[in-house]
Design brief:
The structure is a homodimer. Chain A is mainly alpha-helical. Chain A has helices spanning about 5-25, 30-45, 50-55, 60-70, 95-115, 120-140; strands at about 45, 75-80, 85-90. A three-stranded antiparallel sheet of chain A has the order 1-3-2. In chain A, helix 1 crosses helix 5, helix 2 crosses helix 4 (about 60-70) and helix 2 (about 30-45) packs across helix 5.
Chain lengths: ~150, ~150
DNA sequence: CCTATCTCAGAATAACTGAAATGC
DNA sequence: CGCATTTCAGTTTTTCTGAGATAG
């Protein structure tokens, strides 16, 4: 019963989430906030809707996350001249520094999580998880903020 | 950036969660409700606190889930004569039928998720995920519903 | 004009923290 | 008294509706 893929998947994700929450709390960030900040840092100027898709949340939820990041002065929004519908989010200098300060710790946590595996096993695990997700996604819909 | 264990873990769990939500909606259940119902079915009479630990949620959240299952007539609560503090949750006949009706579909979804893997690979994946979670849990705290 | 996408606003649901009451 | 279970209160987060604005 506890040897189902669904159970261990939930178990692993919960363990990672808890470790990330503990580490990020010292930086005044939540895990969803960090995920959004990391996506902005990797993509430059990006819309809230696109950010929502990459973070597996709804656009409304991402809007709330962005509002908190705005209030903390970590990101800023500007109208895209090429498409006045979208408000592109980008990092402030403060946000850039905060992101870099967190990335080292988060990367270390993820590396510790797979530290019991060899390099080949780590690559196999990641590739296998991606394939499992894709197998399920082709026959069904995707996450709330993805399409 | 999208080849990190954290990303693919979230991706896989999101895909499974969406597929389960879609399947369970036709039975009038949510995924957390099914998880609780399944744990009750596997354990017989069980306390809300223990149920919370097995479902990776807080006791308060499990209390709300149980309240919904009670209102739907799928479970019932009785005082444990040996310890009058605990309210043990057990399945009603209706809950037993509803659980069995869902289990076939949920099992099929989980099997489809790993259908691209051989039997040995499936066992290795599950065992590896369990070890990854344990590696992270020994140095940090566990889920929200554990202490 | 019509369709799709992005964003915002209000209400409802769900989840967590903190703390209190109860019984072992 | 220490510990575990349950429950209450307050807050935050997330989602669900529905709407308005703009691009193609």
């Amino acid at each position: 019963m506890d040897d189902r893929i669904g159970y261990v998947l939930k178990q692993a994700q919960q363990a990672l989430r808890t470790a990330m929450d503990d580490a990020l709390r010292r930086h005044g960030l939540t895990t969803p906030q960090y995920a959004a900040l990391d996506a902005v840092g990797a993509s430059g100027a990006i819309s809230g809707a696109e950010l929502a898709r990459r973070s597996f949340v709804t656009p409304q939820t991402m809007n709330g996350i962005i509002a908190n990041l705005l209030a903390a002065g970590l990101v800023e929004r500007h109208v895209n001249p090429a498409d006045t519908r979208v408000l592109r989010v980008s990092l402030t200098p403060t946000g850039q520094r905060r992101l870099e300060a967190c990335q080292h710790e988060i990367d270390a946590i993820q590396e510790r999580m797979v530290s019991g595996l060899g390099p080949d096993e780590q690559r196999w695990l990641i590739e296998t998880l991606r394939r499992c997700a894709e197998t399920l996604t082709v026959s069904f819909g995707e996450g709330p903020g993805s399409m």
